[in-house]
Amino acid sequence: MSLHTLPDLPYAYNALEPYISETIMKLHHSKHHQTYVNGLNAAEQSYAQSPSIKEKIALQSALKFNGGGHINHSLFWKNLSPANADGGNLSDGPLKKAIERDFGSVEEFKKKFNAATAAIQGSGWGWLGYNSTTKMLEIVTTANQDPLLSHTPIIGVDIWEHAFYLQYQNVKVDYLTAIWNVINFKEAEQRLAEATK
């Protein structure tokens, strides 16, 4: 059984400033994400060594929580890009057209996304997902570290307090407004292209 590892960030810890601070990025990546990786490895090892179905079933929540945390964060880091690179820049193309088709405008999409994500009680994730049945982009939220399984994730935003509290305190709306300045829309467009093949 191969072990899961913490992926390297595709930018420096301070590269998303002033929108996401270096302190938050260091803690979020090297501590929080590493904890999910460690927990997933431990749960998988225990699962492999469990002699009974009952014990395997008992490990499902640890696998879901830590596995989801690892999947979600691995996607999240690629989902971001420094503002002086491509962060926040949504060029004309298939993703912009799909957002305008399904939400009316990019600004209306951001408004609806932020409202749905800010409304999450406790911890969770806000997603722009591609629904392969309807062939539309939809805003979806998941609780805790639940991965997005009903849709193909195009953009995911972590709304756990560890993602923003040291900088934005309890004002989720300010964090959600700021994060659009560092969203990697090129990565999101690639995900959409893969999902619509």
How would you characterize this protein structure?
The protein has helices at residues 22-49, 53-58, 60-78, 94-103, 106-118, 165-168, 172-179, 185-195, and strands at 124-131, 136-143, 152-158. The protein has 197 residues and is mainly alpha-helical. Strands 2-1-3 form a three-stranded antiparallel sheet, with helices on both faces. Helix 1 packs antiparallel against helix 3 and helix 5 (106-118) packs antiparallel against helix 7. The longest helix has 28 residues, at 22-49. The two termini are 32 Å apart.
Q: Main attributes?
A:
single chain, 3-stranded antiparallel sheet, about 50% helix, mainly alpha
Multimeric organization? single chain
Helix content: 40-55%
Low-pLDDT sequence parts:
none
What sort of overall outline do the alpha carbons produce when their principal axes are compared? globular
Number of strands: 3
Write down the secondary-structure element order. Answer: HHHHHEEEHHH
Beta-strand level of the residues, as a percent range? Answer: 5-15%
Strand order of the largest sheet: 2-1-3
Q: Mean pLDDT, nearest integer?
A: 96
Distance between the termini: 32 Å
Radius of gyration: 17 Å
Number of helical segments? 8
How does the major sheet shape up?
A: 3 strands, antiparallel
Class from helix and strand fractions: mainly alpha
